[in-house]
From TrEMBL:
NCBIfam families tied to this protein: SpaO_YscQ
A Pfam entry, by short name: FliMN_C
Similarity comment: Belongs to the FliN/MopA/SpaO family.
Residue span, Flagellar motor switch protein FliN-like C-terminal domain: 288-357
The protein's name: Type III secretion system apparatus protein YscQ/HrcQ
GO BP terms: bacterial-type flagellum-dependent swarming motility; positive chemotaxis; protein secretion by the type III secretion system
Cross-referenced InterPro entries: FliN-like_C, SpoA-like_sf, T3SS_SpaO/YscQ/SpaO
Biological source species: Burkholderia orbicola (strain MC0-3)
Length: 364
């Protein structure tokens, strides 16, 4: 069936991702690109001894004349391609057979870099390999790399960063976590809704369906409201900001007339103590059936903390949970989730096949 309720004229088939139609990022390089595209990287580098005036910025660096060095830290490898013309001594070693002696000499030539990595927390870094050829996967495929410019005053040192093992990624993530990016004004102006938790009560679905205007629900109130007459201040009420089911900013407050006075320091929590909103009436007036609601179709991406959102810049990689073929489409009306669907094609048109509808009683 289509949106008008008529049978579809074209066969409906599940969407298949076109490998040539979407930009593809090497999976092993995605975590590296994510770190290099994080604005906190500058603060991390600036905090290192001897690197206060350095900046790392993504750049278009040709890979034709590079010598590749594999740096080893605690068994983890990370590849970096350095300009052979700017490092002739390294280039001479790269033209050699990559013997242990060549790697040891390369380590001496790269002492400033290795010392810098030591202050980063990567102790006992050594050169595990050196050569002219870009790194390859175990199956022989050439590994993807990303260009990077190391800027120091008027000097720009070009390099390319190749795949890095999880040990290097974990180290950089821990180091960058110490340097939260300042919250930009545009994000600071986002208004986060707050909720005063009055109480909660589990109600059977049958009871929810029978609710009508004028009905009274009892024994739902929070203990803080026990004996409340509407005049005296009420203490220890739960006040929350954020979306139920996610991390929330929580504090306790005293309700005094139209004012809420915080009693505790707000803190983050991942507990979902927010009452679930009541279900809609099982039956509605016929006139409401003709009401047109704006329905949006959304694909959930990823949830990011504000500190990470404020650190986004060009080149940052956001990894989705799956492909469009496997994505679930959220149907929302006025911010309320009303159904779930999947992408399909109908002829040459893109459609959404409904998988589940919430609040529908057609099956009753």
């Amino acid at each position: 069936m289509n949106a008008t309720g008529q049978p579809a004229r074209h066969p409906v088939r599940a969407l298949r991702d076109d490998p040539n139609g979407l930009p593809r990022i090497d999976a092993e390089l995605a975590s590296v690109a994510r770190l290099l595209g994080d604005a906190r990287l500058d603060a991390c580098v600036a905090g290192l001894d001897g690197a206060a005036d350095w900046r790392l910025v993504p750049g278009d660096v040709a890979d034709g004349s590079l010598c590749w060095v594999a740096l080893q830290y605690d068994g983890a490898l990370a590849w970096i391609g350095l300009n052979a013309d700017a490092h002739p001594a390294l280039a001479a070693l790269a033209d050699d057979d990559g013997s242990p002696l060549s790697c040891a000499i390369a380590g001496l030539l790269l002492t400033p870099l290795i010392d810098l990595l030591d202050t980063l927390g990567a102790v006992n870094v050594s050169v595990a390999a050196i050569g002219r050829h870009a790194p390859v996967h175990r199956d022989g495929r050439r590994a993807a790399t990303v260009g990077m410019l190391c800027v120091h005053g008027a000097h720009r040192h070009a390099c390319r960063i190749g795949p890095a093992d999880p040990g290097w990624i974990d180290l950089l993530e821990r180091r960058m976590a110490r340097h939260p990016a300042p919250l930009p004004a545009r994000l600071g102006r986002i208004r986060v809704p707050g909720y005063l938790i009055v109480g909660e009560k589990a109600l059977p679905i049958a009871t929810l369906r029978r609710l009508r205007p004028g009905d009274v629900v009892l024994r739902f109130a929070d203990p803080a409201f026990a004996g409340w007459d509407g005049a005296a201040p009420t203490h220890a009420l739960a006040l929350r900001w954020g979306v139920a089911g996610m991390h929330q900013y929580v504090a306790h407050a005293t309700l005094d007339g139209p004012r809420l006075v915080l009693d505790t320091e707000p803190a983050m929590t991942d507990r979902n103590d927010h009452p679930v909103p009541g279900a809609p009436d099982a039956e509605t007036q016929t006139s409401l059936d003709e009401l047109e609601l704006p329905v949006s179709f959304e694909i959930e991406t990823v949830t990011l903390p504000l500190a990470q959102l404020s650190a986004l810049r060009p080149g940052y990689v956001i990894e989705l949970r799956g492909t469009l073929r496997d994505a679930r489409i959220r149907l929302l009306a006025y911010g309320q989730l009303i159904g779930i669907g999947e992408l399909v094609t109908v002829g040459e048109q893109l459609g959404v096949r409904v998988i589940d509808v919430f609040g529908s009683h057609d099956a009753d």
